[in-house]
Amino acid sequence: MNPQMVMHEAEYHRITGVCERLTREANAKVVFLVDKNGQLIAASGATNNIDTVSLASLTAGNIAATGGLAKLIGEKEFSILFHEGERDNLHISIVGQRVILVVLFDARSSLGLVRLRVKKASEELAAIFDELQQKATAPGANTLFAEITDEDIDNLFKE
Amino acid sequence: MSGEDAVSFINYPLREITCKIVYYGPGLCGKTTNLQYVYAKTNPAARGNMISLATETERTLFFDFLPLGLGEIRGFKTRFHLYTVPGQVFYDASRKLILKGVDGVVFVADSQEDRLDANLESAENLRINLAEQGYDLDRIPYVIQYNKRDLPNIVPSEELSRLLNTRGVPEFNAIAPTGVGVFDTLKAVAKQVLAEMKKGG
Fold it and tell me: Which CA distances in Å does B47 have to A56, A136, B15?
């Protein structure tokens, strides 16, 4: 079976820290980090009015679809997508080929500023995810599931 | 974690486990209907919004998505992300994308006699597309549902089982619009996914 993605406390705080700083420095409304399978990893900014779970799933679908398009024309992937709306815009980029960074911004920021700040944040995030990957592949990295009993699983499905 | 082939997601800081389940099967077999029933019958606090990327005639164009919470195991919230694929043959590229990172598969078969070939073709397509992602249909958590049992001209479920369930996985008769078999199917696959994670952990 393929390895699981596992998020640990220390890395989570560093990742959230990078997202929060990016939100401030890019004058963004919200910053999201999503894995390529559509699961939300971190979010910062004004997330209250946004369905973050749906956003994560659709972003991953979007990246998957444009990735399929890229391959059809002989590109490896499209690493940056930009969606321009009447008020709000989405800047979507792939970090270290495995996670997706989404920046939601309006007229208080600009595409140039977002691109600049995303570039720096991406490098930091890629380094953190490299470390996470090393941890995940280390032997005995994940003991949570070894402790779960069949009874635990059955209990979940009791009426 | 290795991006494209990551399976499930364990988040220690948030104490959450997230798994991905994909409903597969031929066009119009009832994949979306399964999700719609689960959505309608689940406590709103335990589920998110359902997203359907469909055509104007309500055929699935890319996928349906329904996030669901199933309760806690050892203090960890278990979350299941349910996806459907578009069943129509020509959407194969989209189906492949949706299978990425899948933890468990539900095959929804259409019990009607004239859809028998479509079921077999879709099951074979599932095997090929899983293999492309590095999964083996004979090993992945897998449940089969024989849907539309209320319609006339249906194939006996024993016959469907003989043709589609060579592996002997859990199988359920279903009438998705009224919910018969829908939650049994979901529970069976969720249980297998968790058991598989336990084995791998």
Answer: 15, 29, 17
